[in-house]
Specification:
The protein is built from 14 helices and 20 strands.
Length: 398
């Protein structure tokens, strides 16, 4: 057994854990990061690549609540559930339904507005720090509405974003055609977020962040954190052949964080959204910016040398294999927009750590100051990584 002692142990090497470890080390703290897989290789790699500071609308809304039965039972829905997982998911779903009520939806939106307010500015600074500025594209993001009715349904979301001060432009169908001439006509028009930015290669960004953290002096332990126990003067973590003793532990283990939180007596209603993507290698991309056909709930993501199609929500836990039907649905819906898409070059499935209210958990453990939570970011983990790191630093300093 190898025994390591450190000031801060960060459990989790996704974008949240990497950003947090890098910031804390830059501030002069002794930091060990514990991650069994290549850092940044999970959902931090497989996402849509968008810095979505406009994503202030939680997954749970009154509209979703009204249609939740049809959404969950429809195999082609952007929101699906593995029926075998329903018994264990029921507490999460019950809370999700509550958080979708109008008063909770408004409060959750308010919290997301606050968290996302400076996401782009923080990423510009972090990208420069890790040498990834050239991987940022600033051409905005486009939402498509298939019908006029669909656009009218979204009117309340548009108004909430307007009240939050988010830049957005309503676009008629002909304006969409001028912006993205390869897209098919949509009757409902679109919504353009002109200030949105995105990464053209999230995997490379993660590699550079990991190298920046290592170069700054963060120690990496390549092992699975199986147990966490409070002891006098700190916390002990069992991770493979390592025993790590730390004065403070940051749990940033994504979808695996709930198990660790429960071990220290602070259970959190965290569950797993299984996200999927398809990629098509191509020299000439059909779009210049991320495009979301809202009816289908996914993003077309232009990336270096390839088109990534990422999205959909499947509630189904951590243990089941990828569901080929979800990939089939994603491909079929993508071909409704671009019929000439061939077979995908590669596919992927990963795990998003999701809270019923869509608001991440960034706070001290209720059992003491020696454990800090930084997980549950759902669809906005990439977006909120530098903001989360700053918040963890502030919690430590308080």
């Amino acid at each position: 057994m190898n025994i390591l002692t450190t000031d801060i142990a960060v459990i989790g090497g996704g974008v949240i854990g990497l950003a947090t470890a890098l910031r804390l080390r830059t501030e002069g703290r002794d930091v060990v990061l514990i991650e069994p897989n290549p850092p940044g290789s999970g959902a931090s790699y497989g996402n849509a690549g968008t810095i979505a500071d406009y994503a202030v609308i939680p997954v749970g809304t009154p509209t979703v609540l009204r249609n939740i039965a049809s959404l969950l039972l429809n195999a082609d829905s952007p929101l699906a559930i593995r029926k075998a997982a329903l018994p264990t998911l029921f507490p999460w779903l019950a809370r999700f339904a509550y958080e979708s009520l109008p008063h909770r939806y408004r409060e959750n939106t308010r919290q997301l507005v606050h968290l996302l307010s400076d996401a782009s500015a923080e990423w510009l600074e972090l990208a420069a720090q890790i040498g990834a500025s050239e991987l940022l594209s600033a051409k905005g993001c486009l939402y498509l509405y298939q019908t006029e009715k669909a656009f009218k349904v979204a009117a309340s979301d548009v108004e909430l974003r307007r009240q939050a001060g988010i830049a957005q432009q309503l676009m008629a169908p002909d304006e969409i055609s001028r912006l993205e001439p390869n897209l098919p006509h949509v009757d409902g028009g679109g919504l353009f977020f002109p200030n949105a930015i995105n990464f053209t290669d999230p995997g490379t960004v993660m590699d550079r962040m990991a190298k920046a953290a290592e170069g700054a002096g963060v120690s990496f332990v390549g092992a699975f954190a199986s147990d966490i126990v409070r002891e006098p003067g700190g916390v002990r973590i069992a991770a493979g052949r390592f025993a790590i003793r730390a004065r403070t532990v940051v749990i940033a283990a994504g979808a695996h964080s709930g198990r660790l939180a429960a071990q220290i007596g602070d259970p959190v209603r965290l569950d797993t959204e299984r996200g999927y993507h398809l990629e098509f290698d191509m020299e000439t991309l059909p779009i210049e910016r991320p495009v979301c056909p809202t009816h289908h709930g996914f993003y077309f993501c232009p990336m270096n040398g390839r088109l990534r199609i990422a999205g959909t929500v499947e509630l189904g836990g951590l243990s089941a294999p990828a569901n080929p039907k979800r990939l089939d649905v994603l491909l079929a819906n993508a071909r409704r927009i671009f019929p000439d898409l061939g077979e995908p070059t590669r596919t992927w499935m990963g795990f998003r750590p999701s809270m019923p209210d869509s608001v991440p958990v960034i706070r001290r453990s209720r059992g003491g100051k020696d454990v800090i939570f930084a997980f549950g970011h759902g669809h906005i983990g990439l977006t909120l990584a530098p903001r989360t790191a700053r918040m963890v630093s502030a919690i430590l300093a308080a």
